[in-house]
Amino acid sequence: MPTTAPTAHALSDVTASDSTLRRFLHGLPGVDAVGLEARAASLGTRSIKTTAKAYAIDLAISMVDLTTLEGADTPGKVRALGAKAVHPDPTDRTTPTTAAVCVYPDMVAVAKEAVAGSGVKVASVATAFPAGRAALDVKLADVREAVAAGADEIDMVIDRGAFLAGRYLKVYDEITAVKEACGTSARLKVIFETGELSTYDNIRRASWLGMLAGADFIKTSTGKVAVNATPANTLLMLEAVRDFRAQTGVQVGVKPAGGIRTSKDAIKFLVLVNETVGEDWLDNHWFRFGASSLLNDLLMQRQKLATGRYSGPDYVTVD
Amino acid sequence: MASAFEYAPAPESRSIVDIAPSYGLFIDGEFTEAADGKVFKTISPSTEEVLSEVAQAGEADVDRAVKAARKAFEKWSALPGSERAKYLFRIARIIQERSRELAVLETLDNGKPIKETRDADLPLVAAHFFYYAGWADKLEYAGFGQRTTNGHSGSNPRPLGVAGQVIPWNFPLLMLAWKIAPALATGNTVVLKPAETTPLSALFFADICRQAGLPKGVVNILPGYGDTGAALVAHPDVNKVAFTGSTAVGKEIARTVAGTEKKLTLELGGKGANIVFDDAPVDQAVEGIVGGIFFNQGQVCCAGSRLLVQESIHDELLDSLKRRLSTLRLGDPLDKNTDIGAINSAEQLARITALAEQGEAEGAERWSPACDIPESGYWFAPTLFTNVTQAHTIARDEIFGPVLSVLTFRTPDEAVAKANNTQYGLSAGIWTEKGSRILAVANKLRAGVVWSNTFNKFDPTSPFGGYKESGFGREGGRHGLEAYLDV
Q1: Of A35, A53, A59, the CB nearest to B454
Q2: pLDDT 10s digits, B145-160
Q3: Hey, which of A67, B54, B273, B390 has its CA 20 to 30 A from A170?
Q4: HSE on the CB side for A37, CA within 13 Å?
Q5: Which residues of B are catalytic?
Q6: Do B247 and B269 touch, CB atoms closer than 8 A?
Q7: Coiled-coil ranges per the record (chain B) (predicted)?
Q8: Helix/strand/coil for B274
Q9: Are B292 and B455 in contact (CB under 8 A)?
Q10: Which of B2, B8, B453 sits opposite A32 (nearest CB)?
């Protein structure tokens, strides 16, 4: 992946100071909320059937970041999750593996062992997840611990307080510091918690801020607040990565997270990807679902397509 | 991993609609043959398949229908408004119940995508009947009174009598609703001529009138060509003429009606300007431009067919627009994933083709996305013209097809001057994040409808109509009542 395309230099000036960064972010095209939501809703009416549905379900399974982020997580729970990521449907070995398992930093080593040799990545939510309200040193220590334990991906939350106060450079500096701590071995997903940014204009600005600071992925939310991924905010972020690549040559991934529970919903998101940024992003290197309950619905739909009959929750595994 | 995400076909079943091999005229509550026995065929524009044979009304039939409407007028106009409202509400509910059937029928007969008939046309059709049903018993509060001998308005507005209505083929059922709902709500009776290429949904509507128990003669439907319409307009016992269609025909009607007591409203052509300022919400503006000109294959009188882009963002916007056009799906209109359906008729396709060729000949730069055109039927790929100036024919003439002319401007004044520099004045659009600019520019645009940060949005509560050669009179909203009342 190119990191210093020729045109990227033109954008490096904008991070020179808080005021240049502010001017740049506030100079981005506005977002008309009504129009954005109407477009997302109209793409949601695409009728996906038969072969296209089978393709979409397998693609969606391969894009799932299977997640457990509970205070009660144990090594046993994480091992079970790892096993499921490798063989989502034990009755059908043609089922693709999920993209990753996502755990807290202290569980990275366990997860790593559980998915060893399968190609499934281990992602870890570092940086004082989910509030992000800790000193930078603490966040960086969190990241280093996860990376040292073998995490392939780091999911960081931004400091929403700083963002909403207009201290964009502080947010930028934190992201670049975390990116540096990721080194070359881990890809960085930057979580905006879009529900707390509240306006679409803010979400577009945050997307660009994240990408300028070196995010490999931009991600909607933690799944821990009331409003998480929506078709509209995901469409908006897809437009941002599309425009960013056009301007800098750098491709950035997108991850909607939280609240996507059914195959039908997941397919709607894939339609958004297909018709906004196209094939280049229809791959788990560039698009992910942060959703754990989604996987079982995808598996049940997959079984239905294979057998012509609906099974039930006991025909797929609990974690 | 499989290659691209190709959507499998998702066709809407046509078994829900039962099209008879032949249909008669609907006069005085009965289906009947034409006096001279003439018939014509209606075909499906996407396949050229003959759908049905339809009776063609002649002068004698027009006379019969007007007489039936005149007779029905006495009782219908004497009903309390609340009684008329009951019939209109009943019609509205039947339309909702049969909306899937009507959507499939309209798509078959017109060629427009099922997505649009299902999600735009039919909900609006029902909404118009519901809206005007609500007015039927409140006419005294609409602000229009009966004309008194001293020229002042009094209370108690009265209906005009028999309304002769002629509607186009682009929104067959919706235009019927725009005309019939206010006419009946105000106590008039109706003789309506649907377009020759799309008569079926009006004939299904006749059946709905019977299903609703509407008194005989209140609504009469006379399929036919231009001469049928001309006979209806000229009939001495018609009190009100309402026409939606081309400006040329509108002028002819105005000449016919001139000097008579008939009241007239005309909804004619347009060449709407869609103005995009450099601070516009770009992604939504692109959607609005697409919806403005490619909705219903551009066969919309208020289409945003002239894109006026601020020069500073021209290249960027055009790149976005072309990329977006490449994702439009053209094909079988019954497929739920189709965005662009068929052109309504061979004649219309020929007209679009000729105007597009003229655009090229006059030096504008033509662009279309790569798309497969089906072998049978009438199709025209979505088309953009750049380097267009006010002097080009494609910037002046209404094309009534999926063809967008792109022009540029440098200042708001220039945008307004160019937008207004047309013989038409039906619609316009403004795209900017600056609220004060929306108000300032909208006030200077001579167009009946000005949309801001959206386009082609309709609502029964909102009046619709034109300036200049786009016609006069308003349909929809409280204003739409005036055209059917003696005020």
Answers
A1: A35
A2: 766 666 655 677 899 9
A3: A67
A4: 6
A5: 267, 301
A6: yes
A7: none
A8: strand
A9: yes
A10: B453
